[in-house]
Design goal:
Layout lengths: L5 H23 L9 E2 L6 E2 L17 H5 L6 E4 L6 H4 L4 E4 L4 E5 H13 L5 E2 H14 L17 H4 L9 E3 L3 E3 L1 H6 L5 H14 L20 E5 L2 E2 L3 H6 L4 E5 L4
Helix pairs in contact: 4-5, 4-8, 5-8
């Protein structure tokens, strides 16, 4: 029997190694069918598996860059008090900082507190009630409320980016309208209405401000502190919450 040359043996070994590498690579590929939908830690909407996320699916926590940038804890309004803020100061998320007694308001925490307040009332309320209650509190604190549509003009403002600079109490917009920093932050992207809705979805799912990616696996309302009801239907899954439209009622878990 003829012996194989050293070159032939080396080529055979190389081909075998290439084949094994291809086999390992193909076996390590993640199929989308093997991945389960999860919840965004900011907006509480469902994140559907995509090919571009497949390799790092366990590390995906937000459905978009917007949700990553405006995640809970990132949007903080800072301003110096000019009037009595007792109506605002009783809510969690409102703090006094430094020798200048600057007011720092974590807007997501404030909105969650209002949601818990309204949902705990006899019979609960609606998400619109939360918005109305917030506006009443701002008026009581003599904080001017501008047209909500202007909120979309502000991208990642100083308040959103976490910049330590203290904003002036009046920010000039288009040279005419004076916008208070708190209202500017509340109504910044994605806007006040959606900011309330996404906070409600988080509370319904039981998602807290911890950015632990394991929380994205929460896809039912079993661990939530409030219930969201659309018509006569209680929303029980992240899919239900994601696609609900219309007037949504809220009530505290265990209440009537």
């Amino acid at each position: 029997m003829a012996r194989k040359s050293a070159r032939a043996l080396a080529a055979a070994e190389s081909n075998q190694s290439d084949g094994e590498a291809t086999l390992v690579a193909s076996s390590s590929k993640v199929s989308l069918s093997d991945l389960s939908p999860k919840a965004c830690l900011t907006c509480g909407r469902v994140i559907t598996p995509r090919a571009k996320w497949a390799k790092d699916w366990d590390g995906i926590k937000y459905c978009s860059d917007r949700c990553r940038i405006t995640r809970p804890g990132k949007v903080v309004a800072r301003f110096l008090p000019e009037n009595d803020l007792s109506s605002l100061g009783r809510y969690i998320g409102v703090n006094v900082k430094g020798h200048r007694e600057e007011i720092h308001v974590d807007v997501e925490t404030l909105i969650e507190a209002l949601l818990l307040d309204i949902s705990g009332k006899n019979g609960g309320g609606t998400l619109e009630d939360v918005q109305d209650q917030l506006k009443t509190i701002l008026r009581d604190a003599s904080i001017p409320i501008a047209a909500e549509s202007i909120g979309s003009k502000f991208g990642a403002s100083d308040a959103e980016s976490g910049d330590e600079k203290v904003e002036k109490n009046k920010a000039d917009v288009d040279g005419n309208n004076a916008i208070h920093p708190l209202w500017k932050a509340l109504n910044s992207t994605p806007g006040l209405r959606e900011r309330i809705r996404r906070a409600a979805r988080r509370l319904a799912l039981g998602i807290n401000h911890d950015s632990d990616p394991k929380q994205t696996n929460i896809t039912t309302t079993d661990q939530g502190s409030i219930q969201l009801v659309l018509g006569k239907k209680t929303l029980r899954t992240v899919e239900d919450l994601s696609f609900a439209k219309g007037v949504i009622h809220i009530k505290r878990k265990g209440s009537r």
